[in-house]
Amino acid sequence: MKISIHELKDLTSIEFDANYSKHIESIVDFIDIKPAHIKGTLRMIENELVCDLHVDVETVLACSKTLKPVNHSMSFDAEIIFGDSEDADYPLTETIDLSDIIFGYIISEKPFTIYHPDAIETSFEKEKSPHPAFADLDKLLKK
Fold first, then answer.
1. Which of 48, 36, 34 is nearest to 104 (CA)?
2. N or C: less crowded end of the chain, CB within 10 Å?
3. What is this structure's pTM?
């Protein structure tokens, strides 16, 4: 969603859906993403725009062990400040594209690892056999 500075005088709140299916094509662990629902408030404070946003999105991620699809829902809040001060996250330009910025937040909120229920019992490491000099000691420990 693109917002121009001239529209900000009339807007105090926003609510829209953003489709990110094209954005995830180059991201390996995303299998699918439903349209994200974004709602929030907009406030002009001096020369800064403060956006308090709430994002809800349903995703399908690849399991970290087996690559099986795992449904994952995300819900998070974000405060984004546009302006020229040190506290600002982004510069305040003539038009602001919130959709791309929110996609960056979705990527950062995504878990690093996620497991399919079947993956908990899956192990890819082979059991190591002891050195032949210690084989008899290993038998003592397994009694």
1. 36
2. C
3. 0.74
